[in-house]
Design goal:
It contains five helices and no strands.
Length: 124
């Protein structure tokens, strides 16, 4: 089994190069097929399209996964959250509400409930 994995590893760089080549070809085709007529820009070569693709990745970055980015970042945040006391968690929630507002909003479109005041009786 280990030997088969090693054989497959040799194809990964080829697969990555093939995907990059296809993406560059798509940029090349779309640029020359659409933007010339719509915006009146010059036609680009395949290599210029590859450069545009690389430039876009540098400027706009790679997509992030989830609310905390990569899975290791999520695990790190969960570990930190679990180490907090209930008082520290509530303090952190309150700071986040002050900074970013009360979100996420309810999914049914209703108004968010008002936070309980210390003098009021608990709601049933």
């Amino acid at each position: 089994m280990k030997n088969q994995c090693c054989k497959f590893r040799l194809f990964i760089p080829l697969i990555v190069l093939a995907v990059v080549a296809l993406l560059a070809w798509a940029v090349y085709g779309l640029w020359n097929g659409v933007l010339i007529d719509v915006l009146g820009v010059k036609a680009v070569t395949y290599w210029q399209a590859l450069g545009i693709l690389v430039l876009a990745k540098i400027l706009f970055g790679f997509p992030r996964r989830g609310p905390f980015g990569s899975p290791w970042r999520r695990r790190m945040m969960m570990k930190r959250w679990m180490s907090l006391t209930p008082e520290q968690r509530e303090q952190m929630r309150q700071e986040m509400r002050e900074r970013f507002g009360d979100w996420p909003r309810p999914c049914c479109g209703g108004e968010p409930e008002e936070p309980e005041k210390s003098g009021d009786a608990p709601k049933a």
